[in-house]
Amino acid sequence: MANMNRQLRLHSRPKGLCAPGDLQLAESPVPELQDGQALAKVKYLSIDPTMRVWMTDIPQYMPPVAIGEVMRAFGFAEVVESRHKDFKKGDRVVGLVGFQDFALIDENAKNSRFQKVPSIPFVSDTAFLGVLGMNGLTAFFGMEIGAPKKGETLVVSAAAGATGSIAGQIGKIHGCRVVGIAGSDEKCEWITKELGFDAAVNYKHADWKKHLAEATPKGIDINFENVGGEVMQEVLSRMNLFGRVVLCGLISGYCSHDPGMASFGNVLVRRLRVQGFIVIDFASRFMEAATEIGKWKMFGKIKDREMIVEGLEKAPDAINMLFEGANIGKLIVKV
Ligand SMILES: NC(=O)c1ccc[n+]([C@@H]2O[C@H](COP(=O)([O-])OP(=O)(O)OC[C@H]3O[C@@H](n4cnc5c(N)ncnc54)[C@H](OP(=O)(O)O)[C@@H]3O)[C@@H](O)[C@H]2O)c1
Fold this sequence. Notes:
This protein is α/β, with parallel strands linked by helices. It has 9 helices and 15 strands. Strands 3, 4, 5, 6, 7, 14 and 15 form a 7-stranded mixed sheet that branches.
């Protein structure tokens, strides 16, 4: 086993996109295990928009990553050595592994939460980071908040991304008319032709607002919001009375520290119910949701797609890819 651990540590808080040097590569010896600890080899890193928020020091749902700390990241790892009663060599786990080669699982550490995942025929390891992981769960619980009814119109933003693509397909399972908003014609084609969305709008086209109006002739009942800002503002202006807004993310503001909020005039006059949520609120129901999503996937009702970037050193560029719209589906780094 290698005796050095490569780590990407936060050196400076980015302004805008991550710049070279904001995360710096360092090496330290692989830790010697104490009782109650296990060592896991990190195989895959989940690349998530929230990482860009973790790199800031604004108030958020978890403590910001401190300067000098290993960059926080969710990922998939395999236990290679153990003195921990709950984990043995060969166990496959997901959890906050960090941008590094080896993660320490420590029963005494407050934030060391790792979950074993099964080996299922025809299910890739990376699925536990996307469709069967945080993104699938986020889509599932977000759509539960949206309370879809047959025949209603659902609009999903960042619709060709890891979360939006699943949320839209759950909307189809519930019998909604589903319209996705995404940043390229290729993405729009994927969600309509492959995933079964009823319509897609490329928000980078000059007349996208007109396209959105044409795609939502009966107005919008549910907004699964991933973007915020101008996209959300336009969707809110087309909401029907007593519609529901599932506030999942506001990615358009993450690099500029702008809350990405739309004006709330439409929320008032249309009597909308707006609910923000963080997927970890539903931790006690993760197994139930993953089982349901797994069934949908098995029966072909949900399709997913992954984009895999090779190499730990590419992880900072991968974070930027999310904000440049360079990913389709779930973005993952193979360590
Ligand atoms: N509440 C929760 O617990 C929770 C959990 C997971 C994720 N989220 C949120 O869900 C959203 C999607 O996350 P994800 O992990 O599934 O990422 P993702 O959608 O796979 O990737 C992000 C996508 O956002 C779009 N985007 C980036 N900047 C944009 C901008 N300025 N305006 C419009 N679109 C922009 C890009 O697609 P285009 O090409 O379409 O622009 C990009 O591909 C994020 O807001 C994230 O914070 C929330």
